[in-house]
Design brief:
Blueprint: H1 4-7, H2 22-33, E1 37-41, H3 48-55, E2 62-65, H4 72-82, E3 86-90, E4 106-113, E5 122-126, E6 128-141, H5 145-154, E7 161-164, H6 171-186, E8 191-195, H7 202-206, E9 214-218, H8 224-238, E10 240-242, H9 244-254, H10 258-271, E11 284-286, H11 289-316, H12 332-348, E12 352-353, H13 354-364, H14 373-381, H15 383-389, E13 397-400, E14 405-408, H16 412-419, H17 422-428
Parallel strand pairs: 1-8, 1-9, 2-7, 7-8, 10-11
Antiparallel strand pairs: 3-4, 4-6, 5-6, 12-14, 13-14
Helix pairs in contact: 9-10, 10-11, 11-12, 11-16, 12-13, 12-17
């Protein structure tokens, strides 16, 4: 019996109301049929994981979930271990952000040999003779794509490597991987990269050679007919009908976020007492618009709690006691959040120009004349890192360098901006000057 949570809502696994979109799913299948790397991007909760999982089942491939501290060596070691290749001994030495290339990244890899009989191979018995595994030991450099590719091919790997949360990596590590992804493409090792951003050709900006060796697939925008198809598909799975005025209102309230829409549909069903698939022929129809209004209130409270904490964390920035010249620090993250709240939904919905933000901050700043373009560059360039360090997952805001705009990349944030008391929240943000 299908549960409502299996049909509607946001989940790590594809929900049963998933629909294919020709301009997205077809493009993804075409990318799979090519020899190129695949990059899937867009705001959070807009269907990236569902899209990939639909066509490349996660449990059949290599999934690496990145964190802000992940290095290339970490990533490549994890790939090898998931292929059954053992890292026998390591001479890696940490030299800051990355393990140094050269002898320090060299390891001895133990490759499982099925069938045995290869010169130099050694056998290990696991429990009994029937579990005997034969290994070949070779030296490899974990910093070199060539070595990683050879190890992958030695175990006849045909799996995709799925890199989730690519946006967690700092810019330097993203650049390094952009270079390696190009090399891996030539070596026939396929990657699928998922990232929370809205900027076109983001990785190609780090490595121009990747432009013709990758396919970018944005999961946005979602169009109104697609929302209706999701609602109809879910209703069919539950053997119910949902009144069109409820669907219309939910679409409007979702602000183009399929994640918010999915959550509203789930809550509407639960509030209406539909917790699972209904018997065939029961003719259950959800018609009470009050169910949706209650659902909106529930989600507004949930999102407000999360986003208020996130904004407070961003506003606190990095701990600063005093500026280098002895004056009070600029505290730009605080003024950034205050400007964001004052401009509200209308000010950010289409992306906020950098110049507009700069002007807004200077108007309110205690040292407005001292806020230089370079200070704004440091603030905006460090937004992703700041949010990662503060544990804000997924990130809320991103800066698109190509169009010089601040973009919302958490699709629930629009819902929050429309439903929360932004003036009150702004007043509650701790002022670092006090």
């Amino acid at each position: 019996m299908k549960k409502t949570e299996d049909v509607f809502g946001v989940s790590n696994k594809p929900v049963l109301s998933y629909i294919e979109r020709p301009d997205v799913d077809t493009r993804f299948r075409e990318a799979m049929a090519s020899d190129k790397q695949i990059i899937v991007y867009g705001a959070s909760k807009q269907g990236k994981t569902s899209l990939v999982g639909k066509h490349i089942p996660y449990d059949e491939h290599i999934v690496i979930r990145l964190s802000p501290n992940s290095t290339r060596i970490d990533i490549y070691s994890s790939i090898l271990m998931k292929l059954g290749i053992q890292i026998k001994e390591s001479e890696t030495k940490n030299t800051g952000l990355e393990t140094a290339v050269g002898f320090s990244a060299k390891v001895k890899a133990k490759i499982p040999i099925f069938g045995g009989g290869e010169a130099g191979a050694k056998s290990e018995v696991k429990g009994n003779s029937e579990n005997e595994i034969t290994y070949k030991e070779i030296t490899a450099n974990l910093a070199l794509p060539n070595d990683i590719a050879e190890l992958c091919k030695s175990v006849k790997n045909k799996k995709y490597v799925i890199l989730e949360n690519f946006h967690y990596l700092d810019e330097e590590r993203q650049k390094e991987l952009a270079v390696d992804l190009r090399n891996f493409q030539e070596l026939s090792i396929r990657f699928v990269v998922l990232g929370v951003w809205r900027e076109k050709n983001r990785l190609a900006q780090f490595n121009g050679d990747l432009l013709d060796r990758s396919v970018e697939i944005p999961v946005e925008p979602w169009h109104e007919p697609e929302f209706r198809r999701v609602a109809q598909r879910g209703a069919d799975e539950l053997n119910i009908k949902i009144a069109s005025n409820i669907v219309d209102r939910a679409i409007t309230a979702s602000f183009s976020s399929i994640g918010v829409f999915q959550e509203l549909m789930k809550q509407v069903c639960l509030i209406a007492g539909i917790t699972q698939e209904q018997p065939a022929g029961s003719n259950v129809v959800v018609v009470d618009l009050g169910c949706l209004e209650k659902a909106i209130t529930i989600k507004a409270d949930e999102y407000a709690s999360r986003h208020q904490r996130a904004l407070e964390a961003i506003a606190s920035g990095n701990v600063e006691s005093s500026a280098k010249d002895g004056r009070v620090p600029l505290f730009l993250p605080y003024y950034f959040v205050k400007a964001l709240l004052s401009l509200g939904f209308d000010g950010i919905s289409a992306g906020m120009p950098r110049a507009t933000l700069h002007d807004k901050i200077r108007e309110a700043h205690h040292r407005g004349a001292d806020v230089r373009p370079s200070d704004m560059g440091n603030l905006l360039g460090g937004l992703a890192t700041l949010q990662a360090r503060k544990g804000i997952s997924p990130p809320i805001i991103d800066y698109d360098h190509s169009i010089r705009k601040i973009q919302v990349v958490d699709s629930t944030f629009y819902f929050f901006l429309r439903n929360a008391n932004l003036e009150k929240i702004g007043e509650e943000i701790p002022n670092p000057l006090h």
